[in-house]
Sequence to fold (399 residues):
Amino acid sequence: MLPVQPDRFLADLHALRGFGASGVGKGVIRPAFSDADIAARDWLAGRMEAAGLSPVFDPVGNLFGLAGGKSLLMGSHSDSQPEGGWLDGALGVIAALEVARAAQEAGGPPVSVVSFQDEEGRFGITTGSAIWSGDLPLSEADTLTDAGGMTFAEARAAMAARAGDWVAPGRFTGFIEMHIEQGPWLESAGEQVGVVTDIVGIRDMRIALEGQQNHAGTTPMHLRRDAFQGLSDLNTRLNARFADMVGDATVWTIGHVAVSPNASSIVPGRVTFSMQWRDGSADRLDRMEAAIRETAAEVAAARGLTLDFGAMRALAPTRMDDRLVAALSEGAEATAPGKWRKMPSGALHDAACLSRLMPAAMLFVPSIGGISHDFAEDTAEADLVAGLNVLARAVAQLA
Ligand code: GLV
Ligand code: MN
Ligand code: MN
Fold:
């Protein structure tokens, strides 16, 4: 087992949450390319250098801390949701830093560290690792916009002075990402560690419905072309239609809605919203997509609305690498005997993109109350350290 130091690991993890601290619990506000995100990346680059790694920013803000020669790559992301927890992504980056630092001190094996950019999807889905892995062409990524209309190209210009060249994936032998579970299963079973077998697939697109903006006092109900009523109708019809199409683990979310002009005395003329769905079966994702497109067209026709589908981002369901899963499983059994399980991930992770390039695997630790993407997100310190120890064992064993 590599000689990792839990105190040093926890100190760095708490230091990182100082960047973009929300002031509510341990929460953070550190979306990709925000001032807090860039400051955190600069701090991380310094910690990498102090650990004996060479920090490199690539053209899209991904930050690598490179060990010499061919190495294992470990990490996650340090950007957050608009209202994020302190561990989502940050845990995997700082655990990787501690493992790489301990490996440097022990004289090997070489471990490199990465913090990918925009995993949380201000612009896309796992944007930085999707570009780096070749899943998303840079020219296409540059046209993606955030909810306020800023393009990815404009956002990454804020880091242009730091940008070096692309890091060649061929210098890495595999990728391991530690992460919080972000769901209820480990905690409710009293377990400390999860070894991920699969990551679900996802589709995410923006949809717009346009009707006629009008006076909310004088426009009779039967003459209205109300875009918000269209969205409401679509949501009801889709929930009914999905009922006999989905499995226990299928999820779908309308998480971002912009009603225009968003005033109480105006019949809404336009509504744009996100439609996201996730499942472990690519075939089911296809069938849900067809249902969404058909149902939206039915609603638009019935209500005299025009319908516009924006670009859709998609990631296929992904299996983790058998050899890395076996190493993490042995580390889990040695660290938390009988208190770990193999499990799928319902959240999306950079490891899904990385598996296109190299063997990839993931390790989970429990989330208190199953809460994440919220300032209240947290994990017991003993579980954070248990996860670190599993990594330290697995990396030594793989070497
Ligand atoms: C990543 O945070 C996801 O949405 O699963
Ligand atoms: Mn994450
Ligand atoms: Mn997240």
